[in-house]
Amino acid sequence: MSSEISWFSALCDDDYEYLGVPEPERKSSFPHCSDIVQTADRLGFDNILLPSGYQLGIDTIAFAGGMAPLIKQIQLLVAVRCGEMWVPQLARQLATLDQMLNGRLKINIISSDIPGEQLESVPRYTRTLETMQVLRQLLNGESVDFQGEFIQLQLDPPNARTVSGKAPPFYFGGLSDPARECAAKGSDVFLMWPDTEDAVKAIIADMKQRAFNHGRDLKFGYRSHVIVRETEAEARDAAARLVSHLDDEEGRAIRERSLDSASEGVRRQAELRELSDDGFVEPFLWTGIGRARSGCGAAIVGDPDQVAAKLRRYEDLGIEAFILSGYPHREEAELFARYVLPQLDHAPLAMG
Fold it and tell me: How far apart are the first and last CA of the chain?
């Protein structure tokens, strides 16, 4: 099986040598984040996630446009926040960006609020689904006649087209029931944060059934941190070092700073930390990173063979795309590419 192996660029002020200890040179900026992307490109990663936060870091779409002439082969998984932009404008921007990337664009849909406002979960995911449906029509080059709860629109598509003439694949995640239904109806790749293998298996089975109920198929992605060293002992030492300067109050402040800090997915990450033994909730899955992170809160930790074997176990469960990261992001990308990437059969995720 050939999976997509992606890395992560810290656009949301999330890069540290010691978790929770900010460093000016690692703050989100075009030079720093560009260095991470170009490193991942050079190392042979298939794709890289460019995250988005309303208050945190720099703008994702503008950053991706700036990166387009600087990269050679890597795809860009660009996060877009559904509550922040009118869909026709977003479609035009993304089609133009896809042209700049020669068709190497993928889209990470974020079910965000409008800045300064807050919707309950069910209507927010309703708006997100409407956004995905209309955005897909426009990026497919179709005229739109849509009368939804949040979007009412009759419009021909913009002249800007993607290279393929079709919408890039939509990556999307969420654990609540409204989030799962939204994903089953509107996304192409269902993303999940770290969890036990039994939980991952159960989520995949549930989402396959939900997608089938709507006459659709889904692919599955897994977003995790990784810490790999030549030996397991060295990897565990690196994990301990990463959190060795972490103040618990600062960690709590970092977790609460994110707008998704009360989501079902974040609740599950906290639950995993509570279930863990010495930080490990199951072999090689360490939850310590979640002490200072709102979202993805665990790392695969081990030697090269252990990390590769853990990824293959997820593949056996049905995962076809991995979005990995580590601290600091550029340095950990180098280590993963040296120790693990040569063991993996990988290629950009093919969409049917």
Answer: 16
